[in-house]
Design a protein that fits this description.
This protein is α/β, with parallel strands linked by helices. The chain is built from eight helices and 14 strands.
């Protein structure tokens, strides 16, 4: 069994592969890089075979989405690797980013780990999807050390201490392969978004911890980052208008899904899960104006 496979899920991501795959290849420390392709139609696979023939490609017959796409691809690797690094195609990695995460997973109590995730476009700031480790409040709202709702903090080293968290980001998540398969992988009903929170929830209920290891850092574009030619003011106008337009519909879907998840993930006897916040992060953020993780009383 080999130590690690770096697995990138791709769907029509030729531009991301062109931009970010070279950094992954350069800093992979000879660990194999594998692309799982969700039936792309943009010639990304032809480009991959031409420029990086050493990268293995697992071609899926259809677009399964993020959750089931990874399940389908990783099922073909079952038993070959000790760990998987699930890496988004729009992530720039840093030199030596793998070593701190691999060392953390040597602890038998730890099932998964994420690095510090910074913004590709604003490298001094945390990125929305994961920042420096994920948490969940009492109502099931996720937030991060370094990001609450739309407020991303500047990284001043204030969260450089490794620690257990509730969830690690699917943008860059290293997980023990046996646990991924034993738990059935991602729940395919999610298709995409929040499936990693659910998986980490199940990991904790199986007796394992999830950690953030800030010694490792990567830079993520993120699905919410659009390539506008206009200035920051236009970006903020688009973001805020779309946010308020969608929030009502999103809340309805969240509460329905949350009820099902709570029933499925009821806390077993034994050690409580880590990374749960007993407060209400919505009230804290909007009413009490607690905009940063350090303002909360965890």
């Amino acid at each position: 069994m080999r130590k690690l496979a770096i697995v990138i899920l791709n769907f029509n991501g030729k531009s991301h592969l062109e931009t970010f795959l070279p950094s992954v290849i350069d800093h992979s420390d000879d660990h194999p890089v594998i692309v799982v392709d969700n039936a792309s139609t943009d010639a990304s696979i032809d480009w991959l075979s031409l420029h990086f023939p050493q990268v293995e490609c697992i071609k899926l017959s259809r677009n399964w989405g993020f959750a089931q796409g990874y399940n389908e691809g990783l099922s073909q690797l079952n038993g070959q690797y000790e760990h998987y690094l699930l890496l988004n195609s729009d992530v720039k990695v840093s030199p030596n980013y793998l070593k701190p995460m691999l060392e953390r997973l040597e602890n038998p109590k730890i099932g998964a780990v994420q690095p510090k995730i910074l913004s590709y476009h604003q490298p001094a700031y945390f990125e929305h999807a994961g920042a420096c480790g994920g948490f969940l409040d009492r109502n099931g709202f996720p937030f991060c050390r370094g990001r609450i709702f739309t407020e991303c903090e500047e990284d001043r080293g204030q969260y450089n201490e490794p620690m257990p968290v509730f969830w690690g980001s699917g943008a860059c998540l290293m997980i023990k392969s046996t646990l991924f398969h034993q738990l059935g992988g991602f729940d395919p009903s999610f298709f995409a978004h929040m499936e990693e929170i659910d998986l980490c929830w199940r990991l904790q209920h199986a007796g394992y911890e999830i950690w953030v290891t800030p010694e490792s850092q990567v830079f993520h574009v993120g699905g919410g980052t659009l390539s506008y030619d206009s200035p920051k003011k236009t970006f903020l106008n688009f973001r805020n208008n779309l946010l308020f337009f969608q929030v009502g519909k999103a809340h309805g879907c969240l509460y329905l899904a949350l009820f099902r998840l709570i029933q499925q993930r009821k806390k077993p006897a034994g050690e409580p899960v880590k990374g749960r916040y007993s407060g209400n992060v919505v009230l804290d953020f909007y009413w009490k104006k607690k905009k940063h993780y350090s303002d909360l009383q965890l």
